[in-house]
Design brief:
There is one protein chain. This protein is an alpha/beta fold and about 500 residues long. Helices cover about 35% and strands about 15% of the residues. It has a 5-stranded parallel beta sheet, with helices on both faces. Helix 3 crosses helix 5, helix 5 runs antiparallel to helix 6 and helix 7 packs antiparallel against helix 9. It starts with 5 loop residues before the first helix and ends in a 20-residue tail after the last helix. The relative contact order is 0.14. The protein binds flavin-adenine dinucleotide and iron/sulfur cluster. The site of iron/sulfur cluster has 15 residues, from helix 4 and helix 5.
């Protein structure tokens, strides 16, 4: 066990955020590193529970009490080994995961949970700084027995699957339609949450291990399904769930109304390279911005709009404001829906709850100048407008961040003889296999729009399934069955 009295004597601390007035002038990460001794004290708060609920709350089954103990004992290298034993990309999850492990931490029943995510990020960063993260190419014997595998899509699910299969000895090619690999890690999530050099550093490791990347290649079009199944012994589909939900109200076609991903992709392309950002194709500079959708994608738009110099930003949400504390129906250890203030919210803007957009209003040039909204209340699974609460809200840039309806039904799926279920997912069996022989599906494409930690867990598990299909047996871990959702964690 780490420090036997740490949970009694050490208060919880997480990383400091850079001051708001400094950080909104650039796109660099918001959080500052925590120093080593403080991280060791934070790890020392862990009680090494007999039944470690944190471990069960983590989709990857991260060995949290083990690496807390090792960090407290200052054995950071062993901690890094234990962390990488279950997680291919801890520098991403340590920054981006909503940390269901912390919601499930036993210490959280009566006080503040262990700062697990912080300890994870610090171990991952220390491992890179010290040169402990090295390429792990497969031994020649494994390579000789390997087969050819195509991974379609280079988000966290595809990258995790590719790394696992390459290390198992297979010749893996990742096909990516975008110009560079990374999926939503590169084109969705803003730099101020994850600087892209971290992604490039990890991709260099994958390449050195032997994973090949073909970017700017759309599977199903530039390379057909028949060519893929002819040239490869197995396929892993990891194309994400990227069809956005639209808003069918009058005026929805006006100029100045964009899907959040159009906006975030343009912003990420403008900041790519780490220098002074170029002017993005869609900019919030000087604009009155309204974001429709109160979730994390909306918060990413909010932080981006402030950094681009928006005149004002308002985020609208149809649901009522959630409670500040766990409601009785969501007790420990479930991941609760509560009112959260992300770094982007701390930077400004208004959040308006329980409203619905009824219409967009345009100017003479056909550009949005306002939207009409009405207050709503939930009733019988629907939302009812409250009469007399209609009002107009000025805006000249509207960003739609209302979630995603599922995967794209495209030529790739058609060519493989596959379709989507009623929730826009590619159906698979309990072993990640689709009904097309040798074709597996992982990540958002199989589960619906979700989280990075699930994508990595699914990528690892689908790799094990494909390895078993190709070799008859596997030593790769199956982390979770498809669709698993421990402790009510959002999928
Ligand atoms: C704006 C935004 C912010 C988010 N922030 C967070 C966060 O902070 N924390 C968190 O845990 N989760 C976050 N998420 C969710 C998380 O990013 C996703 O759950 C995760 O990226 C899913 O991984 P994936 O590999 O399944 O798919 P994706 O990351 O979507 O990657 C799919 C890839 O497949 C490629 N592709 C698709 N079709 C083809 C084809 N036919 N041929 C070739 N390539 C193809 C796409 O171009 C893409 O690169 C966020 C999501 C969004 C939209
Ligand atoms: S539940 Fe919390 S206190 Fe218990 S082992 Fe996990 S991190 Fe440590």
């Amino acid at each position: 066990m780490a420090d036997p009295t740490g949970f009694l004597t050490t208060p919880r601390r997480t990383a400091a955020r850079r001051p708001v007035d400094v950080r909104i002038r650039d796109f660099r990460e918001v959080y500052l590193p925590m120093d080593g001794p403080e991280t060791e004290r934070q790890a020392g708060r862990c009680m090494d529970c007999g039944i470690a609920f944190c471990h069960g709350g983590c989709p990857l089954g991260n060995l949290i009490p083990e690496w807390n103990d090792l960090v407290w004992r200052q054995d950071w290298q062993e901690a890094a080994d234990r962390l990488h034993a279950t997680n291919n990309f801890p520098e991403f999850t340590g920054r981006l995961c909503p940390a269901p492990c912390e919601s499930a931490c036993v210490l959280g029943i009566s006080g503040e949970p262990v700062a697990i995510k912080q300890v994870e990020a610090e171990i991952a960063d220390r491992a890179w700084q010290e040169g402990w993260v090295r390429p792990q190419p497969p031994p020649a014997r494994a390579r000789a027995a390997g087969r050819r595998v195509a991974v379609i899509g280079s988000g966290p699910a595809g990258l995790a699957a590719a790394q696992q299969l390459t290390r198992a000895g297979h010749a893996v090619t990742v096909f990516e339609q975008a110009g560079r690999p990374g999926g939503l890690l590169r084109y969705g999530i803003p730099e101020f949450k994850l600087e892209k050099w971290r992604l490039d550093r990890r991709l260099a490791q994958l390449r050195e291990e032997g994973t090949a990347f073909e970017c700017g290649v759309r599977a199903g079009a530039d390379v057909t399904a028949a060519e893929l199944t002819g040239q490869f012994d197995a396929l892993i589909l990891a194309c994400g769930a990227r069809v956005p939900r639209s808003l069918a109200v009058p005026g929805a076609g006006l100029a100045g109304i964009h899907q959040a991903m159009e906006y975030l992709t343009a912003a990420n392309l403008a900041t790519a390279g780490g220098g002074r950002p170029a002017e993005p194709a869609i900019s919030a500079r000087g604009r009155h911005v309204v974001i429709i959708g109160g979730g994390d994608t909306g918060a990413d738009c909010l932080g981006t709009a402030h950094r681009q110099g928006a005149a004002s930003v308002t985020q609208l949400e149809i649901l009522p404001r959630p409670p500040e504390r766990r409601p009785p129906g969501q007790p420990w250890p479930v991941y609760p829906v509560i009112y959260r203030v992300s770094a982007a919210h701390e930077e400004g803007g208004d959040r308006v709850y329980a409203v619905s957009t009824e219409e967009f209003v345009g100017d003479d040039a056909g550009r949005v100048r306002a939207l009409r909204l009405v207050e709503v209340e939930p009733s019988g699974g629907r939302f009812t407008a409250k009469p007399g609460t209609e009002r107009e809200l000025r805006c000249d840039l509207v960003l739609l961040a209302m979630g995603f309806t599922g995967a794209e039904e495209d030529d790739l799926l058609a060519g493989l003889g596959l379709g989507l279920d009623e929730r826009g997912r590619v159906p698979r069996d309990g072993g990640y296999a689709t009904r097309a022989p040798g074709v597996f599906v992982a990540g958002d494409m199989g589960r619906g729009q979700s989280l990075i930690v699930w994508a990595v867990a699914e990528g690892r598990s689908a790799a094990a399934a494909a390895d078993r299909y190709l070799a008859g047996l596997t030593s790769l871990p199956t982390v979770i069955p498809p669709g698993a959702a421990p402790f009510g964690l959002p999928r």
